[in-house]
Each structure stands twice: as structure tokens, then as C-alpha cells.
Amino acid sequence: MTDKEIFSLEDGKVLIKFARENIEHFLRYSKRIIVPDDLRKKFTDKYGAFVTLNVQNVEGNPLRGCIGYIEPNFSLYDAVHRVSVSSATEDSRFPPVTLEEMDNIIIELSILTPPKLIEVSDPKEYFEKIVIGRDGLIVEKGMRRGLLLPQVPVDHDRNWDVDTFLQHTCTKAWLSAEAWRDIKSTKIYSFQAILFEEEIPRGKVIRKYLTSS
Asked: What pLDDT, in 10s, does the model give residues 102-118?
């Protein structure tokens, strides 16, 4: 059974609802909700996960917050419990989200597969091994590390190619845009994501499929 088969649309609805309730409870009372027993039992396996907050009906980049765990170090319920609040309050790129803003914010959940090192003998091989719309990327060099989710190159009409995706992931790691070409000291990892998203704030939750394959 694949990861895509493990998580049903109903699972996505439950997890998105849990993430929203957790965020809004924290914004009201400065503490996270208690995880329901049924979620603890159902989502006990460990996964990396990101929660992304996007502002509805914003042209260009609607991002309002995005925090997550790359590695599968926590049970999925625990990861979502942690990063949902962090995405709203701890993303250093933005001020904390307010409770009033949540009326206009769409929640997206990315459940990650474990990262795998892309082994190449020539940097041009990345163009064959990375698939836009399937793969997320992690760039790592020394102590610097940057991640972009699989949806980033295709969301909001970006239409990036692999070269552009690699460059942006390098700059996310505070490296030069061409650092990916240095295969001796720069490591590139790929991963996939199972995506769920609200269509509108507090609205219908859908399984999100990316436009590229």
C-alpha cells in the first residue's frame, strides 16, 4: 500500500479541521487544544508534515505562514498539533496571525514521505531525476538547509522548470542560486507530499493534485 492510499479524503478533512480548531483555540486562549483520542489512535505513525496558511483572493503570493517538520520524528497527530500553531505564530517572515484573519485564510496540509538523497555524477542529471509537480526538494550544504514543497513550482501560475526550482531551493538555504551545481559539497534530497486543502476558509476540503506529473 502506498502513502497515497493510506490517507483518504476523509482523513484529510479530519486533519484540516483539527489544524484549524487548534490554531483558532490557540489564538483565543494561548494554548493548544487537547488531541482527541480518536486522532491519537488513527494517526500514530510518524510522518513529516507542513501546514501552510494562504490568504484567500490575493494576487501573486498569498502565503501567510508555513512551518513543518521534514523528518518523520513525530506521530502525525503530534506533528499537525505542533506545526499548525507554529505556522500561524512562529513563521519569522510574518507577524503572528490574528483570530480575525482566520476568516480569510485557507489551510493546506502536506504529509511528507521521507527525504531521499538524489545521487548524481553530473549536475545535469538532476534535470532527469527531479519531476516538477511530484518532488519537493531539500538543499543541504554544511549547516545550511532549505526546503521547498512539491506544490511551490506549480502553484499560483509559477510554472517553474527544474533549473528554477533548484535555484530557489538553494536561495531558501541562504546559498548562491547555483550551489546545486557543486555536487561534491551540496546535497539534494527529494520527497513527495500528500496534499489536502480547504477550497475556501472553513469550506470543503479537497485532495490536492498538482498540475504537473
From this structure: 999 999 999 999 999 99
Residues 78 and 40: beta-carbon distance below 8 Å: no
- Model pLDDT for residues 32-73, shown as the tens digit of each residue: 999 999 999 999 999 999 999 999 988 777 999 999 999 999
Q: Which three cell numbers, joined as nine digits, stand for 50? A: 507542513
Q: How far apart are CA 150 and CA 133, in angstroms?
A: 6
Domains and CATH numbers, the chain: 3-113+193-207 (3.30.700.20), 116-191 (3.30.1490.150)
pTM of the model: 0.86
Distance, CA of 129 to CA of 206 (rounded, Å): 29
